[in-house]
Structures are given as structure tokens and as C-alpha cells.
Amino acid sequence: MRKNFVRKSTFVLFILVVMIPSIVLGLGTEKQVNQASENSNKPNTDFQGEAPVFKNVSVHDPSIIKDGDTYYVFGSHIEAAKSKDLKSWTSFANGYTTPGNAIYGDLSKNLAGSFTWAGENDSDSKGGYAVWAPDVFWNEDYVNDDGTKGAYMIYYSASSTYIRSAIGYAVSKNIEGPYKAVDTIVYSGFTKNEEYDANSNVNKKWTNTNINKLIDNGTLTGPRSGWFNSNGSYANSNFPNAIDANLFYDEDGKLWMTYGSWSGGIFMLEINKTTGQAIYPGEDGTTDDGRLVDRYFGTKIAGGYGKSGEGPYIVYDKNTGYYYLYVTYGWLGADGGYNMRLFRSTSPDGPYVDAEGKSAVLPGNVDHSPYGMKLMGNFLFERKVGDPGKGIGYGYLSPGHNSVYYDSETGQQFLVFHTRFPETGEMHELRIHQMFMNKDGWPVVAPYRYSGETIDKVNRQDLIGEYKFINQGKDTSANIHKSVFIRLNKDNTVTGDVDGTWKKTSHNQAEITVDGETFDGVFVRQWDPTSERYVMSFTAVSKEGVSVWGSKVLNKTDDEIVEDVLNDLSLGDTENVISNLTLPTEGTRHTEISWETSDSKVVTETGVINRPEVNSESVTASLTATITKGDITKTKSFEITVLPYKEAGLVAQYSFEDGLNELTGNFETGTVTGNRIDNQGGTITYANGKTGKAAVFNGESGIRLPNGLISSNTYSVSLWLKPEQLTMYTTTFFGARDSNNWLSLVPNGPANGNTMVWSGSSTWYDATAGMKINNDEWSHLAFSVDNGTINVYVNGVQKFTGTNFPNIFTSTNSNFSLGVNYWDTPFKGLLDELRIYEGALTPSQVSNLAEVNK
User: Fold this and answer.
1) What is the DSSP string of 291-354?
2) Would you name the residues annotated as active-site residues?
3) Which pLDDT tens digit goes with each residue over 294-311?
4) pTM for this structure?
5) Residues 829/705, Cβ–Cβ less than 8 Å
């Protein structure tokens, strides 16, 4: 009897020992929908489960908060959205609508206290508003006007230039608003004496901020002389741009606000919990480690010297005892290299340092790319020919300005940010990625967006195999870090495009050593949107602050890989070729692809075509691809038919001979507008032009052209320009089916300031000239679109050719204008000889147009 009892007790104990790790690992988390099998500890299985469902929104500079069972994000330009699961989002704001603004009610009246300084119909916000980067949180200690306690608080930014800004706050008992403004607490960009910005009536003298009131009530003794340069301007290399507020509680329950962007760095102020007002230091000084403490702006915690750094966000983690400071380096545009960095501190007001001990506060005007743990920048898990899925792969451009949601119950952390995408222009969307702590207490970011995954025990056998591998580097640049191929081998070596070693420690901890640098992180299964499969991945960071990612691919033989490349290889429509072909030379996993042509006069082995002139016959040739990997070789041929140019017919001409008459008789006379395509007013005058007279644009007016000038996907536009000034985004020729589907000929565009044709639609498009035309001299600009093929010319020289340009003008009622659009600064300068053609002009025809009166 006793012997039997011992046997049973031993068996029960064994069961408990087996079960306890699973219980501990799963504590506080929902059941994982994508684990390898019902028993996640069973190797060599690939249970896929259901695919996640996403619904995307665009919220720039998102700040996250959870209320009940709903997550909310609030962002710039008064955008906001909500979700139950962090995957499917629904917008509930209405932008700058006023009155009747979803967040602020009567926007203009409600935020008037801040707008007297910046943000409404002033300078960079001329003709509109600039309300940016809010942070929303629940404050149980706030005392409302009716004496009750507790309110949702929104700290917003109002801005008119890169340094003249203000932070104000508003309150509501409903998280979705409307929020009632209370006060404006921090101003920046003020000057020593009276001074005004362009397109502004705001006197920037410091006495027009709240500093006067703070002096009167004894909080400040007076203005600080160091706030001003020797010429009286704002010393923005040492002091902040007052935007990007983030509120957080420290471990003792004190409320803090960190804020700031570029220029002089990021600062910290304590906040009175019952009133929401700032607790200003009142005196200047330095911290024990030598950082600036300003009587008004507070304590400097990061950046400085005009270096990029914005969107600060601080999270306290009780498990590690650290305050984590997230900031974003770079510029937010698709070509701006936005990337997220991380520092930490044991004190809310710093010092914040990275893993190498480098301070978040810069030592001077230095290259700041070595400072901070780089979590994520430009990357692409590149899809090569033969890889599963469609398109170019999965990647981001300029991800940043993040917030973080930390679930104290489950221990889960989520990185919340906006990002742009490769080959989609400036279109941006919200993204959520889960984060995990590595063994040194540094968060590492999952490679793929959150799809409901949980961290769990992984099997060593399931880790062995080939991966797409990305090293994020430490740079802040427009460069895209593309994936390479590596293999985690059974003997714990790493081979392929990089060499090293790997190992799994504990249940899921990853240690990857490549090229002598060691990265610590985790293994986790995630949803890969390109292959549409759950795959094994890893994320890790080194002590040098470099992040690496891996995404496992299916094991395949060389024969299978070559067959995949063969089946996937395509050149699109080869029966109606009108532009150069892109001939891939590498398939998946370094498969080689070489090309041969039957007639290089028709198409070369690099894909360059020779298109016949107008009224010629089509020409044909064959291209043959040879696909090789290891000892396996296969071929695939394509028959190519190159079409001749079509005759382009002139359908509209505006020569501006002291008027806006259309000379062909096909369309009505143009009309003068104000500073937007749909505004009234404005003035257009005339002066000597390239041929006869030209229209003079004063920077506040435009010309509305008749609807329907273009109503096909084959057209050309030609004009002469003599800019007086070149401002970013300013259009010269603009056409739009609606406000979401448009094209714009911009002399100074968002792609490195290049002259370009810029299009916004379901896919954004940058057709850049690779240069910028000059002020105060005539330049001839032209572009043609031929069923998706676009060519851009400057002074008769072809500067860009590309395919897949969007079909914008699908109706006969599209809007057209010169010098103005719906959003941006109007054109200032001269414009002459606008010509619209039905059909694509040939290069020689464009060259002839550019020769007029040269």
C-alpha cells in the first residue's frame, strides 16, 4: 500500500514539474492562436492557425491610451482612432473641421489662447491650422471646474514655425472629447525685441508669452539672457521647440512632462496633478552630471545643438526599475531617415544613457548617430523572384514618433508609431509592434506588426534553418537596410551572407553573434504578411545599440528554388511594351538570372528598349532568362513587342498674353483664385515672358483651369517657369480627381528638394528629376504619361522614366489649377506657355518645345 502511494505521489510530482513552466509562461496572457501546435513544446510541427485581420488607419505621431477594453490613439492634425485588439482600427476624429470638431468642438474659439501665439492662419499654418502631437492620459487627481476629481487630459502642440510653438492642455470627462482648453504652459521661439515671421502678424517678443505673468507672480525673476542670441533672436540651439508633450507618473506618483523637438533638445518639467500646470524650476542651474536646468523650460534630458531628436516618450518599468526614454532621430519624410532610439535612467529627470553609457544629452555639435539604442529605421524584408507572395516585400520607411503601451497585468509592451513604406511616397499608417525584454533589461522590437502573438517556449530544432536577416545599423539616412540570407546551423554556427554563432538560452532567449558583435534578444513566432504564414523570427540588440532581425523561410532544395524562380519570373505585359523593362538578375536565396536578347536593336539584355517613331510599325524580339542555383539550371523565354510612339495632339494652350484665354477653343478661359484651388479672390498680373507675356504669380494667388482638361491615362503637359522663390511642396501645375487622387508638378518637392511630378492616390509616386531648377531663370518643364509610364523632362532632357504611375484622371470632371492646390504655399514667380496634349510627346518633340526662344 505504501509503495503504491509513493509511486502515485512520484507520478503526480512529475506531472506538476512538467506543467509549472507552461503555467508560469502563460500567466496573464491570452491563449496563443499561432503556436506551433496544441503542445507548443513539440518540435518539427507547423500549425498555422487563423490569419490575423487588420484594418489600417493614418494617425501621425500617435499617442496611445487604454480606456476599459478599448485602445485609443491620438495624433497630429487632430486625428484619432480606436481598437479593441490593436489590429483593427477605426477613426473617430474629423481633422481640422470647425466648428463641430470631434475633439475640440469650436476649434478656433476653444484653442484661441494658444493660437494667439501660433497654429492658426499664421506663417507656416497660413490659411489653416497646425495642431500637433497630443498626449492623452487619465488624471484621477485633476480638480474640475465643478469641484469633482478626475479628468482625461490632452496636452497638445500649436506651431507656426520650426521654433515658434506652444504647448497647451485641455480636459474632458469623456475620452473621445470634446476637450475644453484650460491654459497654455510653455512657449518657444520668442525674441528679445519686437519681431515678426513671414506671413505673420504675431509679435514674437517674449513679453507676449506667459513669462510676463510668471514674473508678476514671483515664479520667475525675469527673462534669462541666454534665451537670446546676440541679435536678439531665439537661441534654438540650446533651448527647445515647445511641441511633442508626453506625460508620465514616476514610481512615487509624481507627474512629469517631457517635451521638445530638434533645436536645443528635449526637456522635462514636473506637473501639478490637481491643476495640470507646470511646476517651473524658477532658477537656472545644472544637474549633478552637468546638464542644463532652466528656470522656465526645466531640465534638459536629451539632444541639443540643432541635431534631430523629437517625439520623446517615457515609460517606467517596475520590473527593471528603469525609466525608458524613446526619441526619434531624423526627418519624418519618406526620404528623411526617421528612426527610433532608446535610453534609460533610474531617475525620471535623468541622466538617460544607452547601453554603452553614452548620454542622451549630446556633448556638442557632433554626429549623433552613435548615441542611443537604434530600435528601428528604414528596412525591407525584400521579396526576390521566387519568394512567396507578391510585391517588393515587407518594410518601412521613416518609422517613428512613437508612444508605448505597457500592460502592467500581463507584462506586455507595445511600440506604437507611424510609418511610411517603400515605393508609396508620403502615405503613412499606424503600426503596432510588440516588444520583449532581453537579458540585459533592454526592450527589443518584434520584426513584424502585432498579430496577437505571445512569447512562448521554442524548440531548438525549429530554430535551425535559413532566415532573411536585417541589421538596422546606427545610421540616420534614407538608406534602406535590406535583408540578406543567413543560416542557423545545427552546430550553432551562422553561415551565409554573415558569419558567426547562435544559441538559444532559457525558453526563448536568443544570442546571435555575427562579425564579432553579440546581440541578445528573443525568438518568437509571428505573422509574415508577404508569405502569409506564421514564421519563426528573432529580434535582438547589441551593447553598441544595433538591432538585428531574422525571419525564417521554408527549407527547400536547389531544384525547388529554381522551379520557384522559374514560375514566378514575369515581365508583365510583353505585347504592348512602351518603356524600358526591369530584368531581375537575382532570385530568392542568391539564385542567378542572366538574360540574352534575339535583337539588341529592339531590346537589350539589360532591358533597354528602342521605341519606333510615330507612324512606324511595332517591332519584336525575344528575351531568354537562364536561372541557376548550384548545379541546377533552367531557362524561360519571353516574346517582346515594342509599340511605336503615338501622335500627340494639342488640346489646350494658355499663353497668358494679358489674359487667361485658351487658344485652341476647346476649353473655357481660366479664372483667378486665392491661395487655394477652391478659394475666392487673388490677383494675377502679366509681364514679359518666355514668349510674349507671362502670368505673374504673387505667392498668394493661383489660376483655376477648366475641369476636364485631361480625362485619360495618356497625356502630356509642357510649360515654362521662372520662379522667384522655391518653397517645399509648392505646385505649378496641379490636377486632381478629388483630394485623395492628384498629381502635382513641383519645382521643390519632398524627395530631397528635387523638381518632380508628385502624385497622391492609393499608391503614392515620386517621379524625381534628380535636380532642382534655379530661381530667377527660365526653365522648361514637361512630363508625359502613357498608360502608367511617366517621363519627366527638364529643359528638353529626359530626367526620369518610370512605370506604374497611377491612373488619376478617370472622369471628365477632374479639377486643374496653376500655382495652387488644396494645401500648400502658392507659387511665386512667372509661368508661360502652358500646353496640354492628348497622347505622350516623344523625347524629340519635348526637345523642340524646350528650344523655343532659347
Assistant:
1) -EEETTTEEEEEB-TT---EEEEEEEETTTTEEEEEEEESBSSTTSB-EEEEEEESSTT---B-
2) 61, 310
3) 999 999 999 999 999 999
4) 0.80
5) no
